[in-house]
Amino acid sequence: MQKSAGCYPTVNNHFLFVIIMKKRNFIKTALGLSAGMLIAPHVSGKIHSSLTIPFPGNNQIFSPWSIPLQGRSQTPRIRFSVIGLNHSHIYGLVSLAIRGGGELVAFHAKEDDLAATFTKRFPHAKRVSTETEILEDNTIQLVVSASIPNERASLGKRVMEHGKDFMVDKPGVTSLSQLAAVRKVQKKTGRFYAIVYGRLESKTLAKAHELIQAGAIGKVVQTVSLGPHRLSPQDRAAWFYDKKYFGGILCDIGSHLFEEFLYLTGSTSAKVLASQTGNVNFPQYKDFEDFGDAMIQGNSGPSGYLRVDWFTPDGLQTWGDGRLTILGTDGYIEIRNNIDIAGRKGGNHFFLVDQKSTQYIDCNNVDISFDRKFVDDIINRTETAMSQEHCFLATELTLQAQKKAIKMG
């Protein structure tokens, strides 16, 4: 067993807050860290129910059943349900909705093992036998999903056509034709189709945006985003290795980086200058991609380079050494979200260099309000958490980059 099955930002800056248990604690099922959530090990499309995940470098494990729903304590403001548990990012999405003021009512899953795991975490949620029971319940305002990626767009359309908002794991869409269909239904119904990108709950990116807006580094010239991930192949579902299901590496884990480029540069449109993808190291998975990169240009002027891969070595004490450099005319920002290798402990590392000094800024106490704002938007029909056009534009860029990518090798 590899040391961690996780893949995405650390517990400091994403969707679930994890109680760290000492090694003598026993758990029934363990989830690894996920782009801010927990990611459950999968085998042949099922969550492996007897696996514990030790955290490399210490004697700690993570228990999904011990994770409190920390955050804002309040009376529920909306009712929501879940359809599709195929990716364990669902645990983070549900916790986000609850923190924002949602009450989890029911869920639908075809897979009994995934349903059993979900019920252990959320015992008060009723399992229903068909999605129709959720779609036709007029007391439910929001449906949350982490189904198999290429099935998400069709589900989202059905949700919106039933007068409900839709919050979905990335990638929320896996083809340009799907995106066009989703846009059409969204425009017709006026419901939200919210794809949850990692930036939305990132403390460091919130701080970077604040300082950029304040002129701390002058005019942004370029962003360089690196998103390495650990594969842990024995812990993945079969669909994970087939591009027709996940859309390709840029479509999938690259989507975070396209969205953060738009957010940080203030670009309202952008074009893909070049992109490439490849399967460098896993010939046994002929329809998989383990590397991808792209260059993009925003209408506001800045350019961006982004790279994603599945090559994080086991010697690293986290799922990936994700980094971001934002170059400005008067300085630059470097962000190390998950780890400062051989340096400071923990995550959320933020460095600011300007004309006067070099600073290390602690971002652990930065307030992230996407959860609250998103529920506010559901109630008030506003777009304060993320505009629908921005959400779709980020996905459109990822799909364009994926489509035009040159195949390596």
What composes the largest sheet?
A: 9 strands, mixed
| Intertermini distance | 30 Å
Share of helix, binned: 25-40%
**Can you identify the CATH superfamily of the domain at 200-368 and 399-407?**
Dihydrodipicolinate Reductase, domain 2
CATH topology of the domain at 200-368 and 399-407: Dihydrodipicolinate Reductase, domain 2
Keywords:
single chain; alpha/beta; Dihydrodipicolinate Reductase, domain 2; 9-stranded mixed sheet; 10 helices; 25% strand; disordered N terminus
Brief synopsis:
With 409 residues, the protein is α/β, with parallel strands linked by helices. Helix content is 25%, strand content 25%.
Could you characterize the architecture of this molecule?
- The radius of gyration is 20 Å and the shape is globular.
- With 409 residues, the chain is an alpha/beta fold.
- 25% of the residues lie in helices and 25% in strands.
- It is built from 10 helices and 22 strands.
- A hairpin with a 2-residue loop joins β4 and β5.
- The chain has a domain at 200-368 and 399-407: 2-Layer Sandwich (Dihydrodipicolinate Reductase, domain 2), CATH 3.30.360.10.
- The protein has helices spanning 90-100, 112-121, 132-135, 152-161, 176-189, 203-213, 243-246, 255-265, 370-380, 388-404, and strands at residues 20-22, 32-33, 38-39, 42-43, 46-47, 54-55, 60-62, 78-83, 102-108, 126-127, 142-145, 165-169, 193-196, 220-228, 270-278, 291-298, 303-309, 323-328, 331-336, 349-353, 358-362, 406-407.
